[in-house]
Amino acid sequence: MRYRHLIHVVSLVLLALSAALAVTTVLALGYGEGDAPAFAITTLIAGVLGFLGRRFTALQRDLNVREGYAVVSLAWLAIGVVGALPFLFAGVLDSPVAALFESVSGFTTTGATVFSDIEALPHGILFWRSLTQWIGGMGIIVLGIAILPFLGVGGMQLFQAEVPGPTPERLQPRIAQTAKLLWYVYAGMTGVEAGLLMIGGMLPFDAVAHAFTTMSTGGFSPRNASIAAYQSPFIQYVIIAFMYLAGINFALHYRALTRRPGVYGNDPEWRLYTVIIAIATVILLSAALLSGRHSGGVDGPFRDALFQAVSIATTTGYITFDYELWSVGAQMTILLLMFAGGMAGSTAGGLKSMRIYVLLRHGLSELRKAIHPQGVILTRLGRKALREPVLLNVLAFILLYLSIFAAGALALALLGNDLATSIGAAASAIGNIGPGLGDVGAVENYGWMGPWSHIVLVFLMLVGRLEVFTVLVLFHPDLWRHWRAGGR
Q1: Contact of 105 with 128, CB cutoff 8 Å
Q2: 360 sits in which H/E element
Q3: Helical packing angle, 419-430 and 328-340, nearest 10°
Q4: Which of 232, 242, 311, 379 matches a 20 to 30 Å C-alpha distance to 134?
């Protein structure tokens, strides 16, 4: 592995990030609230680092798998650090660790925040928080593959290392074409949602910000009360619909838009994803009705239950009602939804419905093998038999995911956080959700936590967003042994 190669590609990502920062600088200048210099300075820093890194390193056109994993992890760390600078330069945060937490929470689409009064922030900062989530939703590396042609060679390694799900799916022969198509669908749906929210009476700035953070399943809102600040049922149902769509494999959206509208119903993962949300909605609706605690209106209980089920299952993390006012059973349902996540190939986090489906099917196959030991019984995804390497990958992923969650929860508890908070925060961070349980629940924030707790959560957010293996391979000795030896 060649460090010059890694620096070159990470530098290209920083150049792309500088363009996003430049857009935010212009918007901040327009509002004139004093945060424009912070973005201008950060734009300059990202641009200079990107230019120098690209200028003095050579790009060899044969990126291998190990380099793909390393590039993605290092690029996400780099954008997390650079993305934190505007919070410090604008003076809205004093702690570098807290700024890093907010930045990584944005880019990983987690939506956990250290701010207690979001509405007091300048519009430039609010827009940057939303933009980081929109960029991170589909992935800045995938964006780079889409807009930078010279990343097309070796692009599959980057795509495979970053795109959520057991197996990345090609829509076109060239991976750059696939990345572009995914971004077209993503951007198009974002624009449609923003338009509908404005029709519903939301201000243009708020509509764009919420469209960014809905389609990315991020959950940052420019309002302290999140979506509860908007009592319009129309607005809430629009956001429910687009959260649900964002949790679906974008390859399915592309196929539905171009060829086969009925492709959703034929997909077993989509059916499981929808059933999980439906069951959770029924449980939360029962909790809302039995407790008598819900929003007003004829459809208030149903809307609250459906909204929270979709929001947590898709790992968006928006809130319309404090779910901690409901029963313990409802909160347990919320916790289980944090692990479920959306579909593979969506912007959602969590384990993904695909892995849960494979795990359930494999369990049933093993049960049948116990009854029929001489039979040839295969685990199938629809009509397709799954190969053993795929099954082992899914089982290993789930084991590692749950192990890292448990280790993270233990670390938070050892740092002085109570049990409910430690479990809720760890599940929320590794699932890229935002709100958790206990002192980081639906109406709370993470600003009161100490720097070491923030560092633990930053690690969990990155592990969850990059699908565990991409980050963990950096800690494997073989990777660095190959690097030092110049191996490929």
Answers
A1: no
A2: helix 353-371
A3: 30
A4: 232
Cβ–Cβ contacts within 10 Å for residue 220, how many? 32
Closest CA to 454 of 104, 27, 194: 104
3-state secondary structure of 429: helix
Average pLDDT, the chain: 86
Alpha helices in 148-174 (DSSP H): 155-162
Structure tokens at 175: 């991976």
Q: Which residue stretches of 372-418 are H helix?
A: 388-414
Is-contact 94 30, C-beta < 8 A? no
- 371-424 pLDDT, tens digit each: 878 777 777 777 777 777 778 888 888 999 999 999 999 999 999 999 999 999
Of all helices (H) and strands (E), which one includes residue 380?
A: strand 380-381
H helix runs in 164-299, sequence order: 175-199, 204-215, 233-246, 250-258, 268-291
Rounded CA separation 250/245 (Å): 9
Structure tokens at 207: 């509509």
Beta-carbon contacts of 460 under 8 Å, excluding residues fewer than 6 positions away, are 404, 405, 408, 426, 429, 430
Could you tell me the pLDDT band of residue 479, with boundaries at 50, 70 and 90? Answer: low
Sequence-distant (6+) residues with CB within 8 A of 143 are 16, 135, 179, 183
H-run or E-run covering 381: strand 380-381
Report how far apart, in Å, the C-alpha atoms of 463 and of each of 14, 104, 422 are.
Answer: 21, 11, 17
pTM of the model: 0.90
pLDDT in tens, 229-262: 998 999 999 999 999 999 998 888 888 888 777 7
Report the alpha-carbon distance of residue 66 to residue 231 in Å, rounded. 49
* Distances, alpha carbon 160 to alpha carbons 64, 132, 173, in Å: 11, 21, 15
Q: Is 478 exposed, middle or buried (0-12, 13-18, 19+ CB in 10 A)?
A: exposed
- Cα 356–358–360 angle (5° rounding)? 70
State which H helix or E strand residue 421 sits in: helix 419-430
Cα(89)–Cα(103) distance, integer angstroms? 13
Spell out the residues 6+ positions from residue 366 whose beta carbon is closer than 8 angstroms to its own. none
The residue ranking higher by pLDDT, 457 or 141, is 457
Q: Would you say how long the chain is, in residues?
A: 488
- φ, ψ of residue 380 to 5 degrees: the values are -115, 145
